[in-house]
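ok so I'm stuck.
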Amino acid sequence: MFKFQKLCAAAFAVAVATPSFAAEVGVRQISIAAAPTDHGRDLHVTVWYPAKDGGEPVMIGANRVFAGAPAVPDAAPAQGRFPLVVLSHGSGSRVQGMSWLATELAKAGFVVAGPNHPGTTSGYSTPGDTPKLWQRAADLSAVIDRLTGEGMAGEGMAGDGQWQGLVDADRIGVVGFSLGGAAAMLSAGARADLEAYARYCDTYDKWDCAWYAGGIGYVNEAQVKVGKVDLRAIDKALFEQSNLDRRVRSAVLVDPGLAQAYDAQSLKDISIPMSFINLGGAGTVPPGVIANELAALTPNGTYAAVADSVHYSFLPECREGVAEILRSSGEDEPICEDGGARSRADIHAELVRLIRDDLERTLAR
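replied:
not stuck anymore, here's the structure
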């Protein structure tokens, strides 16, 4: 999720399209103002939730490359109290790109919310911000604060108490993909090891390590020149601190980043269920995200691999004909190809089943 930042920055800038069919999922955009200690990290958060019938749906996450998924803006919420699932997107993407998953979880009876992480979001993503995972973990905790009523009162449903009335604060899970998987790991209690991560990038020259080699970044939707990131110059105390949020009761980690750089004892100390999912089979999963050994270290860890898929298979479905256009334009990242005979829709269906079943099992009353 590091090498196609330019493409993602352009793709996610396109407005959503309006479909002609109904949806049973509501969606709302909220903002969370930065605390004085957050150095200006205002958060833009998308919330999907079970909704009453009615209203005109729009396609969330749709753009010139990717298809979206339908939800009704500001729909009236369904009656009841629902578990909360917090999402963390991959590097250079946006949470709206997880709408294919979020809508299905909302249909299954979850409130689903995720921020666009400043510094690692499409259009605002730099190598220097990428390893600051403690900031991403803080973003996830800020979303939990807001939707459970522990944060500052704000606009919309959060201001009038409806989020608190809708969310069951005793049933909170987190789902992360790639760099978002690393953030979710930290929220669950994992601690990162800076020297282990630096050693990994000393010898590996792809994915995140290639991104740290420098050259370009993106700020305010524009490409900027940046220098090389010296991982050993990162604040060690912040990188290795505990970011445990004890309100999180379950975690699902899809191709989680930093797989070679967690403190083993911290994984052994995690008490909550940890569901690890890799995209691909033996010998095909990149070393930076392979998760079978992480699952083995956590006391309540499970592991699954999705056959005939690749890391990019977690991205939204591509629009018809886009893959050919990308190839003809010289784009060398096969973001619309899935490495096997299966369609991305079929892969997504399996991922939805795995993730939904894990969350229903681990967040049951």
